Amino acid sequence: MVRGQWPENLPTTDDREPTTHMNLRSLTIDAARSAVAEGKTSATELAESYFAKIESDDPKIGAYLMLSKQRALAKASEIDTLVNKGEKLPPLAGVPVGIKDVLITKGVRTTAGSKILANYIPPYDCTAVARLESAGAVVLGKLNCDEFAMGSSNENSAYKPVHNPRDLSRVPGGSSGGSAAAVAADMAVATLGSDTGGSIRQPASFCGVIGLKPTYGRVSRYGLIAFASSLDNIGPFAKTAKDTAIMLRTIAGRDPMDSTSAELPVPDYVAELEKPVKGMKIGVAKEYFGEGLEPETRAAIEAAIQKLAKLGCEIVEVSLPHTKYAIPAYYLVATAEASSNLARFDGVRYGHRANSVRSLSDMYRRSRDEGFGAEVKRRIMLGTYALSAGYYDAYYLKAQRVRTLLTNDFIEAFKKVDAIVGPTCPTPAFKLGEKVDDPLAMYLADIYTVTANLAGIPGISIPVGNSKENLPIGMQIFGKHFDEATILRVAHAYETAA
Amino acid sequence: MKVTEKDVTYVADLANLELTEQERTRMVRDLNSILGHVDSLNELDTANVPPMAQVSDRFGLDDSKQGSDRFAYASRDDVREGLRKSLPHDVALANAPDSDGTFFKVPKVIEK
After folding, report:
1. Minimal Cα–Cα distance from A337 to chain B, Å?
2. Residue A429 placed within a domain
3. What total number of domains does chain A contain?
4. Which chain A residues are within 8 Å of B97, Cβ to Cβ?
């Protein structure tokens, strides 16, 4: 790692014309790769088109925190050399992708959306990013997110908010708001995000794209800046189920650097997409259609379920009886783990250090006070409280027991069905500023997503319609542990049905 | 009110945070609001429910094996040099706010 290799700061507007006229709107992974392979464009030209698009459109959206032009153009040039020599191209050759800024990238500043890491240049690469690049992907830059992935609206980014590309007055969701917005606004073909309580699925739903949270253990967490280690997952955002499958196939699988990554074979998710869904049993849990679910969202989900029935799926009612306890259990487990994980930010080895301190302990405190934002402090405080002497049994241990009940709910339901569907969120995207002063209201918006993290099961959000205000509505599909193939297949069948 | 200003001061101390007067007032309000919601967990009798700390000790195991061998993938034989070499000194220190080239430097630990 060389300190001199700082990537360019986020550009403001630029009058440069795109060097190619690829239609970025509908560009999928296979289309991008074919265009490069067939010489319709070069990987370099394609990357330049995306940079031009970002430079023209991102000032009003705010999806990128940092562009990694040097790294992107070096990779693109490597792909172009392969093309020119007529050599075999890797599966993502020249495909421009963006990376959430909680995934570390060697030599490219990584902030986790926090001031405390404002100048952090990681010395190694996150496994998922390294796997994408080995497969030929071109990393355009680092995407905005809530600070340390803590938030549901992206408003906790220490740098700037992200505006929903569909309606700039609304949030893109969070915490992976930049990752969802970048795909929705054609500023990357696909992106990576992280999901600890819905941080991939909820923004995918709000921005009208696909977002997949894999099974815990399916994708290595090595190089993911930890929020809550037993709940954190890395997963993809894309425009189509097929692209999502390609992304997952690329990043999934055992990694010796993460002992919780499972030693299980990775199916060919793309090949699995084409298997029929006829006869598949799809569960619908009544607990996901209760109070708080907006009527328009409910109607869109019910219509989507009807469509699955028309495709030959058998719709089966199931029960997830402990669902209403998911939010309190989640916010205790997640904050307890966060309070421990974030203890490492102390101004010694990396990150912000306060000036003119009186002592070592004064340095810790003031560095953390100055470096962390309000939501991060709130969660550290809640987690520390839940773990502290006298409260451990009543809060943390209690939440872990309820986690077992929530997990058993899914195990029981999956004895009867192959997948479970429901809304991703109770409402479409809300307005910027709407919930910023009420942390509990913000937490309650995660009601349908946190359960998958507690249980460790995979979940995908797919767009299934729009509200009257033209805001996207997402349907969530849950699968059994390590059965991403089935939920991707349902997503693909829904998407390709007339 | 479950959480008092005094609790907030105590917990902030445990968490190595200082917090301004304003932040403390807000923290009392927010923690009480959240913990009020959390109380619903007490409706559940969990006396005989085991706690779940991890997903990976229950799912994704090698079910063809018995007992602790099911976790065998999560351990490995010692590798002398580790899975990868340690970071070189200059790289490990490159992000340090203060170092002398060999060690991380911090203010004096012993006060007074």
Report:
1. 10
2. no
3. 1
4. 347-348, 350-353
Residues A341, A152, A260, CA angle at the centre, nearest 5°?
Answer: 40
CA distance B80 to chain A (A): 15
3-state SS class at A69: helix
**What is the extent of the structural domain holding A143?**
29-273
| pLDDT tens track for A411-421 | 999 999 999 99
The answer to the question of residue A415 being in a domain is: no
Its sign, for the CA torsion A145, A151, A157, A158, is: negative
- Per the document, the length of chain A is 498
- Residue A360 falls inside a structural domain: no
Q: Is it true that the peptide bond before A467 is cis, omega within 30 degrees of 0? A: no
Which residues is A227 bridged to in the sheet?
none
Per the CB < 8 A criterion, the answer to whether A330 and A398 are in contact is no
Please report the domains of chain B, with CATH numbers, ordered by start residue: 5-43 (1.10.20)
pLDDT tens-digit map of A227-277: 999 999 999 999 999 999 999 999 999 998 999 999 899 999 999 999 999
Give CA–CA dist A421/A460, Å, rounded.
Answer: 10
**What letter does residue A436 receive in the DSSP assignment?**
T
Place of tokens 């805001």: A471
CB pairs under 8 A between A and B: 189
Report ipTM for this prediction.
0.93
Residue A352 contacts residue A368 (beta carbons within 8 Å) = no
Q: Is A13 part of any domain?
A: no
Q: What is the CATH number of the domain that holds A208?
A: 3.90.1300.10
Q: What's the N-to-C CA distance of chain A in angstroms?
A: 51
Give the distance from CA A230 to its chain's centroid: 16
This prediction has a pTM of 0.94
Of B17, B50, B62, the CB nearest to A369: B17
